Amino acid sequence: MFYVRLDRFFNLTASGTTAGREVIAGLTTFAAMVYCVAVNPMIMAEAGMDRASVLSATCLIAIFSTTLMGLLANLPLGVAPAMGSNVVFAIILVKQMGVPWQAALALVCLTGLIFMVMSLTRIRERIAQEIPDTLRIGIQVAVGLVIMFIGMRNSGFVVPSPSTFVSMGPITNPKVLMTLAGFILTPVLVAKRVPGALIISIITLTFVGLFLPDSKGGSITPWPTHIFALPRMPHETAFQLEPLYLVHHIFYVLPMLFFFLCTELFGTLANLLGVVTATGMVSENGRIPRAREAFITDAAGSILAPMLGTSIVTVYSESITGVHAGGRTGLTALVIAGGFVTALFLWPLFMIIPPQATAPSLLMVGMMMFQGVRHLDLSDLKESAPAALTFIIALLTGNLINGMAIGTFSYATMALATGRGRAVSPVVWGLCVIFIMFFAVSAHMHGHHG
After folding, report:
1. What tens digit of pLDDT does each residue of 273-320 get?
2. What is the rounded distance in angstroms from the CA atom of residue 196 to the CA atom of residue 21?
3. Cβ neighbours for 70, distance < 8 A, ≥ 6 positions apart
4. Lowest pLDDT segment from 195-204, 274-283, 399-408
5. DSSP, residue by residue, 88-138
6. Where are the domains of the chain?
7. Can you give the pLDDT at residue 284?
């Protein structure tokens, strides 16, 4: 009786799957994406947020969003805090721009609300079409490169150097050796399509770190005091939003609002398309089934995530692993959510993971984002120059907004110079204005600080 109800609710038979297959698919996807429970708190801690609270928030929002995806959209997708957006949140918004993390959370919440309105109306499709591919790819690659750099910097693999600005850490340092071993072995696991490659790499390196000395007389990985523990509620980070800051500094934070909207728009769209195409569920005209429900789920998650204390959520491209294992319906998503429930109780183990163990996974996430380059026509400067300027300047100045702004100016100027000014969409001109205002406001603010 129960199975019949389950079959009816999720359309298992119609989707050509069984409950058993869905469970295996869910566990496969969970293993592939659970690394976010290790990586997200470590990145958000850079913003001065409590790591244990962010860990709980990460699990809770993954449980909520993935369950909603299963019940509302009936799609086999895992949803959790987006890698990339968390880096932009902690490093660029909070550390570089000096926005308090409470205000940065309010900005993410506002993004979620705007995205919800866009998802319930038809605005979303229109804006998605108006942003040129070259800028979108440039931004995606820029974030990928920044993620790789952060992994290398946090693990001590890359250190400051007076002559070249950055260089590699001393090879005799156990932290550098451990990270290097991870950089070489993790891509091997991914290339061999080992299920859960990233979490296997994180667990292995964390274990090795128990036996490697750090410079302070301990080991790189501290020994855990417990394995299981009752979930910690995210007291330090939950309901700390500070919306008034945004009201006072709106022009200063506008480019970041646009960035988060962009990642919401394209990150989710790209991952949704990638996963659904892998299932063969896309209709002839390229329509994604229940895409609207998927976007609404995403928006709801991004409204709730900052209230708990983490950044934007997105559909994880790792969901493809579960689809390859036969997952076709929302039952897969419910199993993924169940996995995050167990992670809530294993938080003492996640808390001991050192940055050296997560750096190789960040490298792999960055590589995945870097693959966008292959969609650029490199022989056509009108297309390749704006994208290349975006990611090179973002990487070398360590600031995404610089890259986004200069890439956008370059795109508009090249279009005007080659007589294609009419082809530039209003969205791009609007962006140019936003960036000019941003530079004016930030120069003014730095003038006062200087």
Report:
1. 777 776 677 666 667 778 888 889 999 999 999 999 999 999 998 898
2. 17
3. 329, 330, 331, 332, 333, 334, 337
4. 274-283
5. IIIIIIIIIT---HHHHHHHHHHHHHHHHHHHHSSHHHHHHHHS-HHHHHH
6. 10-136+164-360
7. 64
Query: Rounded to an integer, what distance in angstroms lies between the CA atom of residue 282 and that of residue 278?
Result: 9
CA distances from 171 to 202, 250, 279, 288 (A): 21, 45, 45, 49
The rounded distance, in Å, linking the Cα atoms of 139 and 237 is 29
3-state secondary structure of 190: helix
Name 382's Cβ contacts closer than 8 Å, sequence gap at least 6.
134, 414, 415, 418, 420
- Going from the C-alpha of 42 to that of each of 86, 122, 221, 368, 447, the distances in angstroms are 10, 37, 14, 20, 32
Give the C-alpha separation, 208 to 173, whole Å: 15
pTM of the model: 0.86
pLDDT for the residue numbered 33: 92
CA 110 to the chain's CA centroid: 18
How far apart CA 169 and CA 418 sit, in angstroms, is: 46
Residue pair 425/132 in contact (Cβ under 8 Å)? The answer is yes
